Amino acid sequence: MTTTPSATVDALSFPALPGALDTPRVVVDLARVERNIARLQGEMDRRGIAVRPHTKTHKSVSVARLQLEAGARGITVGTLGEAEVFAAAGLTDMFVAYPVWADAAKGARIRALHEAVASFSVGVDSVAGAERLGVAVAGGRRPLRILVEIDPGLHRTGVGSPDAAAEVALAAKTAGLEVAGIFSHGGHGYRPGGTADAGADEVRTLTAAAAALRSEGFDTPTISAGSTPTMLSAAAGAVTEMRAGTYAYGDRQQWVLGAIPAEGCAVAVAATVVSVADGRLVVDAGAKMLTKDRADWLTGFGAFPAYPDLVIDRLNDYHGVVTIPPGASAPVIGEVVAIVPNHICPVIDLVDSVVVVAADGSVADWPVDARGRSG
Amino acid sequence: MTTTPSATVDALSFPALPGALDTPRVVVDLARVERNIARLQGEMDRRGIAVRPHTKTHKSVSVARLQLEAGARGITVGTLGEAEVFAAAGLTDMFVAYPVWADAAKGARIRALHEAVASFSVGVDSVAGAERLGVAVAGGRRPLRILVEIDPGLHRTGVGSPDAAAEVALAAKTAGLEVAGIFSHGGHGYRPGGTADAGADEVRTLTAAAAALRSEGFDTPTISAGSTPTMLSAAAGAVTEMRAGTYAYGDRQQWVLGAIPAEGCAVAVAATVVSVADGRLVVDAGAKMLTKDRADWLTGFGAFPAYPDLVIDRLNDYHGVVTIPPGASAPVIGEVVAIVPNHICPVIDLVDSVVVVAADGSVADWPVDARGRSG
To answer: What is the CATH code of the structural domain delimited by A256-367?
Structure first.
């Protein structure tokens, strides 16, 4: 099944690109980023729910600071490498939303982070994982805080039942860890029409797990949910914290899902048309820039706000191939075009820096501080 | 259509991983790389065809030097950024196999490369592109050499007819460029059973274009073809040069295509099993390590040589999800496993360095020198 945005969805837009870009480059519109951040923060403030954005989307200390200044409680990271980058930058409150396996190398890194970061916590989804973490931080000056991961239906990581959640919490306590709460990720909401149900799954599953932990004497002050598709539907009931990430930058997938408005797409890849043929053109953004990330309900690998009839049909490493439908408007050779990628997170991870355009039109280069920190 | 390797294909293998890896890490077996390089060089030497390997696969100065020491004439690159890295390392013979659009920024970079590199040439597939290149290098101490790109049926870049090739060559000559030859890329051979025909397409199309150029007075000393699937079938007839790239490292796709032997897979991603559930496991190599590159004739996103019944079914940024078929052998939580990626080129581009294991068992860290140089 493939999906084309319905007529009720606003057309994708992107601000004018700065001139003289040496393509391909990732371009970030700062006003849109700030608006995306303020929109979620305002809504969560109204609901009394803390925001802990996932920084794997932008991997940028500067953008994380914008989120904290807007009112975020702390940040979420997906790897110890990301945590180390943000810790080195002075951020003091972070949660590794991943069941890190604390072998010798990662155990030492967790211990160092736990000692350096004022508020540091890690996800766990198994008894063995909890025991490993306990060994890694044994003898530290305070217990390491963990959150037990619950599977809300994504069938990835996370325990599958409230009883299993309680079992992991008890093992963590025995291992000398502090059980600070529970968390879920409603990634099974990444399909058209699926977001509301996935958010409800998160709330329901977390509520049941919290009850199981309470019956074993655990407080679970943090009940953390979320993904960008479920950021509104999962921010309800017993949930105390929201961990959306992609919302800050937006992408084609979130736009099609209705998770962000069309003017919420804050990042595009600037590319140059390098070749044209009868009914076809090629841009200099390939799989090493746009990535081959494509949900099976989406057609193509990127959209052109200025040319709504075109998508990237095929990607090779440095070639993005577009088939031009008969009669469609298309750019000419040498033209620099903005392309909104399907999924922004892996795209950002490919580049060392992004071109940031501020509201006053000024242009700056911001590093992708945690690029490549995938472990 | 999905393809499983037939029983006649040797099972995928990978040497033992070094101990104490902080996963995920890319691991390179040097003996296999050297054998892959020697195998192609030996065959092309027998045929009297020059080897100009595409370095976008490894992006490594050290591996490029192994290829040159084995007898390669020079290297191929896909971007000016790659050319700049290899030029800075002292390599003196390189071809940019891409129709670079020489705007102000890229024009200045081409001019600098042309002046710094003893033998430097660039692809062209349009009159406008040739004119741009002529402007960029006007007044230089010697003419820039170009190769006209021919489309052998991939329908990506490249002119579509011998007449068009002659037209571009004439425009290049008028623009003050030296027409050094022609080239093609038989990427349409990336499907089971398609490689021999695609290679023949390259030979046929290049032969016709060379004739058209000769009738206009051009010599075309370089007739360059190739991809890893077509590296043998396109190395024939009038072809003088072979530009395969992936052959040096190998990957699951090339193995399924029969383009490399099973023991030709020289690179794997080492990952740790971080979560197990009934019928499922998750490794810490996700889309930001394995990439979502997957041909539609291939199932899954990576293979486990030690567990032949398993593939990576789903990828999120940091999660690789495996469904365990009933009764299949599977790794346990905490186990470090080798995963052979579908397509190695974009995987290498995600990491700053690789772990290289030499034949004597010694382990070194080699930088991915041209990582991220996508333009």
So the answer is: 2.40.37.20
